[in-house]
Design goal:
- This protein has about 325 residues and is an alpha/beta fold.
- Helices cover about 35% and strands about 15% of the residues.
- The protein has a ten-stranded mixed sheet with strand order 5-4-1-6-7-12-11-8-9-10, sandwiched between helices. A two-stranded antiparallel sheet has the order 2-3.
- The longest helix has 20 residues.
- The chain starts with 8 loop residues before the first strand and ends in a 15-residue tail after the last strand.
Amino acid sequence: MAYELSNKLVIGVASSAMFDLSESDKVFRTKGEEEYRKYQSSNINEPLGKGVSFSFVKRLLSLNNLSDKPDTDPLVEVILLSRNDPDTGLRVMNSIEHHNLSISRAIFMQGKSPYEYIPALSISLFLSGSSSDVREAIGMGYPAGHVMESTIIDEDDDDLRIAFDFDGVLADDESEAVMHKTGLPEFHEHETKNVLQPHNPGPLKEFLVKVSAIQKIEEAKKKIEPDYQNRLRVSVVTARNAPSHERALNTLKEWGVMANDAFFLGGVDKGLILGVLKPHIFFDDQSGHLSSTSSVAPSVHIPFGIKNTEGNKKEL
């Protein structure tokens, strides 16, 4: 019987997002593919260092102990998607083993991004350090994010804090388009008029739904074990403010998901908030926001919607 992925939270991760590849990338850029292959072969047993999304991946996988059958029926699957060929990819697989990450599935495609396999593997989120790969994946309608050079947050605990922008990330860019074309007063008027109309899904809606399913498992566990402390925390950090906040909250409720925290900032610098919140990963569609947040938290660009096609003048 085939192993079923559709009922799990599946993440696809490029080695460029999970590990520090600065040295090997330098060899590839300066000396070419053949020397790169020799370098990887000679360092095959030298573990790669932790990259920007390493802590997020590690903590996500740790949630599998909430499953009744963590070894045979985990809640979370992480699949390595690599541009390496199988031989040069051995160092990555050895690094995964060294860091005790329960990742056993991988796709290696020499010189080609494997993002086309996202639907086949029921992947809800693809993370890569390659902005071009991510843009192509987003262009095909796949949920993908570019992991930027960022501050790494990794404490000695099992908590996982995930933070999302709303428009262009969880929801589509319909409202951002109104803001971009007409301005703030018209945007608020539009959102008030449509307050009971849920937003259409954005790139990471299904990822949030799968994350929320694990939150519900934690809530059920807490009813049986009152002393249990929830490890998974979801926050929405958006430049929306009143009165446009209500439609966003109604949309989350319609989707059957819950945010533990919601920050409606009305243009306040998101970096100030994330510096206190300290999420292990933050998703935003606007590079202007990420230039601030990347100095305080692992930051991921979702290159979706009008803000990534017509500039970034008015921000949500």
